[in-house]
Amino acid sequence: MPLFGDGALAVSGQGGILICGVDEAGRGPLAGPVSAAAVILDEAHPIPGLNDSKKLSERQRELLAPLIRERALAWAVAWASVEEIDALNILQATLLAMRRAVQALPVSPQQVLVDGLYCPQTGIPSQAIVKGDSKVAAISAASILAKTARDELMLQLHQQYPVYAFDVHKGYPTAAHLAALRAHGASPVHRRSFRPVRELLTRTGPA
Fold it and tell me: Where are the domains of the chain?
């Protein structure tokens, strides 16, 4: 498994073991679902330039995403909805999206490497790696697919709810987004369990 970055980890499982990288996008926004991706890379078809999606420009992510989909042995993107986020909390909803992504792979991995502190329950041996999206190529690839898929969805939601400018901030709590929330109230795709939205609804009543 290709590794890179400071303190690259000595991950076992090279001799033919299928290792899946998993990462999410969209834990922090006030609106929209959370996405997760799972990727099994093909060592015979390396992808130059992989890195944590947050360290790449939008253009770099857009160029890498189709290469990942083309060259990976297997990949999948899955979601947890706004309703699931509000019902479960964002951590549990994120783990749910991750589990769905792993289960949606057309090839079953033998080990799952996850960015962060927690692993989804997949029944497959798993390891959580802090800053794994900067250390493990498969996790980096997953971070790029999760981010680009979610950004594309937020552009679609912008067409439905243009007053919030989801195309600009992708649902994150920017000053402009908070101002739009105060001016227009919460849309059906806002996360009501998140404090700025919850406090707005407490003052104004349900949208």
Answer: 19-158, 161-204
In whole angstroms, what is the distance from residue 155 CA to residue 168 CA?
9
- Put simply, whether the predicted model's pTM sits higher than 0.70 gets the answer yes
8 A C-beta contact, residue 99 and residue 112: no
Fold (topology level) of 19-158: Nucleotidyltransferase; domain 5 (3.30.420)
Residue in the block written with tokens 């898929």: 149
pLDDT tens, residue by residue, 121-168: 999 999 999 999 999 999 999 999 999 999 999 999 999 999 999 999
Q: Residue 196 and residue 95: Cα distance in Å, rounded?
A: 23
The span from the CA of 32 to the CA of 11, in Å, is 34
Question: For the chain, how far is it from start to end, CA to CA, in angstroms?
Answer: 48
Q: CA–CA distance from 63 to each of 43, 67, 147, 185 (Å)?
A: 19, 7, 13, 36
